[in-house]
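Intended use. Records such as the UTP--glucose-1-phosphate uridylyltransferase entry shown here are meant for training and evaluating sequence-to-structure methods. They are not intended to support clinical decisions.
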Amino acid sequence: MPTKHFKAVIPAAGLGTRFLPATKAMPKEMLPVVDKPAIQYVVEEAAAAGIEDVLIITGRNKHNIANHFDSVPELEVKLAEKGDLDRLERVQASSNLADIHVVRQGDPKGLGHAVLRAQRHVDDHPFVVMLGDDLIDERDPLITTMMAEHERTGAAIIALMEVDPDHIHMYGCAAVEPTESGDVVRVTGLVEKPAREDAPSNLAVIGRYVLGESVFGVLERTKPGKGGEIQLTDALQVLAADPEGPGVYGVIFRGRRYDTGDRVDYIKAIVQLAADRADLGPELRPWFKEFAATL
């Protein structure tokens, strides 16, 4: 386990327009994945890595997120009186995961701007940025490896995953050089959503970053880029190009990842996670096979 006191930052200020009308009044981060909101999986991942301090960057009409991680005494009392201790434990679990803090982003000026809003809270601590669109299976730890690599090198660390070259246009893409460790590469450049023929590799940037306080100074100088927003990718590009700095490294993730970024992948994530559950899988898996045979 890494020795530094890391904090976690979870940007959650997006409008979730791809899931309208479901997200008209409910934050997309609170959409259920089986029986927990998506953002709880992310906080659980941070807690499992030993992170006790989590800052969530929210926007307007996102009060439900803070409420979810707060205690609900009247509900807990009712469950205790009924002797429903299993549900009581599950309700209380989200309140006991970590110290949860919330700050509003204000103007939605992009991921880089959301990370910059964490500066006062993070101070001089190293921190992990965790995007809620990417759920990492608890059986395949990722951020502990990234945190350890940050401690070893002092560099910014990004998570990378090999994807089909035909799909690289959907992601940020990294140009890399090998290191002595096969699954750790030095990042020499980043390209946002390149065409297949322009992509420097098939290594896609997925939603986990480990950063130090130096990123804030770069973000403060970063002008709006793609989409008129302040892009974290642009700041990482500056760090990667700095010959006097520790640079940017990538950890190639080969485990299970669930993309909840669009409707089809969101449904796939629910199916995959439910099928693997000990309490749901035995009943669901045979039904999946029967249903698939009718298609």
